Amino acid sequence: MAIRTFLRYRSLHYFSRTLFHCYFSPLKSTQYCLSSTFSSYLPTCNVFRGCLFMSSFTDAETKKEPEKNPDLVNEISRILSDYRSPHHDIESALNPFSGSISTDVVEQVLKRCKTLEFSAHRFFIWAQKLSGFCHSRESFHILVDVLGSSKQFPLIWDFLVEMRTNRSCEITAEIFWLVFRAYSRAGLPADAIRAFNKMVDFGIKPCLADLDKLLLALSKRKHVKQAQEFFDKVKDDFMPSVKTYSILIRGWGDLGEVAEAQKLFDEMLERGCSIDLLAYNSILDSLCKAGKMDEAFNFFTKMRSIGLIPDAFSYSIFIHGYCAANDIHSVFRVLDQMRRYKLVPNVFTYNCIIKKLCKTKKVDEAYQLIDEMISEGVRPDCWSYNTILASHCDHNEVNLAHRLVSRMERNNCLPDKHTYNMLLKMLIRVGRFDRVEKVWESMEDRNFYPSVSTYAVMVHGFCQKKGKLEEACKYFEMMIDEGIPPYTATCEKMRNRLIGHGFAEQTEILADKMERSTSSLIQELASVMRGNNACMKLKHDEEYSDENFE
Questions:
Q1: How many Cα neighbours within 13 Å face the side chain of 400?
Q2: One-character DSSP codes across 386-424
Q3: Using CB atoms within 10 A as the burial measure, which of 89, 212, 485, 539 is most buried?
Q4: Ramachandran quadrant class, 435 (left: phi over 0; alpha: psi -120 to 50; beta: rest)
Q5: CA-CA distances (angstroms) from residue 309 to 11, 146, 274?
Q6: Average pLDDT in the 426-448 region?
Q7: How far, in Å, CA of 245 to CA of 265, rounded?
Q8: Number of independent structural domains in the chain
Q9: Is a pLDDT exceeding 50 seen at residue 391?
């Protein structure tokens, strides 16, 4: 750890001095800066230890459990990232690790490299050919999920056919559940339904549980109409349960189609299904989401008369409904009723109330709810604290923000990327650069590795502050050394600031450094640093518009 940190800061300080001092130095010194400096220092393989190998390039999180063989997983994940092109000889790069491969290592690598679908597939095939090695069932499922997440549906079907032919792994209904979900996420409900019908081709006779999974996958992605149409065609063959109806009722409720939800509720009664709490809560939820709070309350008052006792979720439905209606008084009225019946909301319901309190500038009451959560045995999560932190940061309340982060740690809730992004952005905005450095240094101590968005906060923030361009360059270079591809907009910001301050030559230095990176994405971004950004759009740029980094 100490050596890695030393190497990082040696590079940062040397580059920062070189970048700004060579501009005022004789030509000979500048030539040395462009050649010897960058050829003598290349990123080591450890620079990929952070967020490059999480489930996406844009999402680094605090590690919750120690991984087995973390160095081996890091190394193999780095190879999958570097050898993502079809013409790359990934097998030769992987061969030195053939004696260390286990099912656990394969599963970890596949989970980390979910955005590297082709590399992950080739890695899976390479491991399958190793003498004496046999993939776990979990590995097969993970790969199907990886391919589905990246919409590689032809590969999925080829893979399933190969599994059937080679009998390398039993094809279970659970694999098809992943396929349903992937097609639904991709906006292809008809293909999800076709996948359900193709289960028989793989020796699986669909049952009610499979139908429920299909309807749930479709409904979660707002394909409720298609789900309903298919349900109407097959319901006589499957004997739908209360759970089946509840899935569709909730789906229509999420779309605000209360009439459709009530029609299903009535059909359920006509078919003689015994109404349980799940079904009743589903119709309550659909009414509240449609803003029909009075009608929902009338339904609620009839629950006990038919032998149903409202649970915590029954009340929470009303809390969410009243929060959406900006009726904070009714929210607390329902909360008081829950307390009377010794019912405790879950963390999501508490968070909904906390968010509403902070929006109405009732932060003290939000803190009281945090205290109540802890006393009731409900552990506040990052969103609980981050909602309050956002209020402190919006009002530049530095001390209160720091106290809240300290409280998070005391309560065993480690800060996440949103916590750090908000805190760092505020500290840069108000000019508390001493605290910026302390917060940054503390992140590694807490096993948090900055993601592309956190680096963007630093680069964009320092670019906006007078006299801090050197700091912006330092963090930009750190991001490159870590193997984390910047946002295209971050490259453009860095380039424009350098040119605007008379350091046009230094954009070439940065571009050269980017071309030397072991990350192919960073190599591509070198053209942006040179001003050739036509049609340059990376996958992780999609998150850029969702966050304000300045």
A1: 15
A2: HHHHHHHHHTT-HHHHHHHHHHHHHTT----HHHHHHHH
A3: 485
A4: alpha
A5: 65, 42, 15
A6: 93
A7: 7
A8: 1
A9: yes
Could you tell me what percent of the chain has a pLDDT over 70? 84
Q: Let me know if residue 342 belongs to a domain.
A: no
The C-alpha R_g of the chain, in whole angstroms, comes to 27
Token pair belonging to 368:
């009281």
- CA nearest to 184, candidates 211, 208, 151, 232: 151
Residue 51 has a pLDDT of 35
Q: How far apart are CA 50 and CA 42, in angstroms?
A: 17
CB 353 within 8 Å of CB 327 = no
Residue 294 to residue 157: CA distance in whole angstroms: 49
pLDDT of 21 reads: 41
Distant-in-sequence, close-in-space partners of 116: CB < 8 Å, separation ≥ 6: 80, 81, 84
Count of positions (residues) in the chain: 550
Predicted confidence at residue 60, as pLDDT, reads: 37
Task: Report the distance separating Cα 163 and Cα 40, nearest Å.
Answer: 49
Contacts of the segment 34-40: beta carbons below 8 A, 24+ positions apart: 34/508, 34/509, 34/512, 38/509, 38/512, 38/513, 38/516
Q: From the CB of residue 354, how many other CB atoms can be counted at a distance below 10 Å?
A: 28
CA distance 357 to 387: 10
Q: Identify the band that residue 446 occupies on the pLDDT scale cut at 50, 70 and 90.
A: confident
User: Domain for residue 402, yes or no?
Assistant: no
**Residue 500: which region, alpha, beta or left (left: phi > 0; alpha: psi -120 to 50)?**
alpha
Cβ-Cβ contacts under 8 Å for 184 (sequence gap 6 or more)? 192, 217, 218, 220, 221, 223
Question: In the structure, what pLDDT confidence band is assigned to residue 311 with cuts at 50, 70 and 90?
Answer: very high
> What amino acid occupies position 461?
G
Q: 3: pLDDT confidence band, cut at 50, 70 and 90?
A: very low
Please say whether the beta carbons of 319 and 335 come within 8 A. Answer: yes
Nearest to 74 by CA among 115, 113, 102, 104: 113
- Domain span at 456: 1-50+449-533+546-550
Q: Which of 198-207, 251-260, 532-541 has the lowest mean pLDDT?
A: 532-541
Alpha-carbon distance of 405 to 389, in angstroms, equals 8
Which among 389, 417, 413, 387 has a CA at the least distance from the CA of 403?
Answer: 389
- pTM, whole model, 2 decimals? 0.76
Residue in the block written with tokens 């076709």: 194
Across all residues in the chain, what is the average pLDDT? 86
Sequence-distant (6+) residues with CB within 8 A of 117 are: 146, 147, 149, 150, 152, 155
Domain annotation covers residue 43: yes
**What pLDDT score does 17 carry?**
43
417 token code pair? 């990327």
Is 507 inside any structural domain?
yes
Q: For the segment 138-150, what is each residue's pLDDT rounded down to a tens digit?
A: 999 999 999 999 9
Q: Name the least confident of 34-38, 101-105, 523-527.
A: 34-38
pLDDT in tens, 117-126: 999 999 999 9
- Residue 169's pLDDT is 86
